[in-house]
Amino acid sequence: ITGHFADDLKRDNPFLVVDSDGHVRWIPPLVLKTMCDFTGNSQETEHCELKFGSWVYNANQLDLISKISSMDLEGYTANQVWDLESASVERHETKYDCCPEAFVDITYAIRFHTKSVWSLM
After folding, report:
1. Taking the model in full, what pTM does it have?
2. Rounded CA gap, 50 and 71, in Å?
């Protein structure tokens, strides 16, 4: 990601799929890469979350739907110290004090555990 998301969308034509029932799928032209920071932690299991949602549009205006229950790990790169334990996807609707309507987010939860000492040798 360049940090200029709007510029990227103007340059690249966004791909929208409109179903016959009116649902619109937006397939953004980007690959998101992130790192979970586990430095200084001595726990055997670590948890990392990626949360996507709107701060502007409520659930009546933008309804995020995930058609998968686990993450696509096609581009996952294994680590020498950590094993991937699980990768799940959850949809949440949250009401805040500011607003009467709920807001939707999709959260990707990733759980790792340390490899055994014997497998590191």
Report:
1. 0.68
2. 11
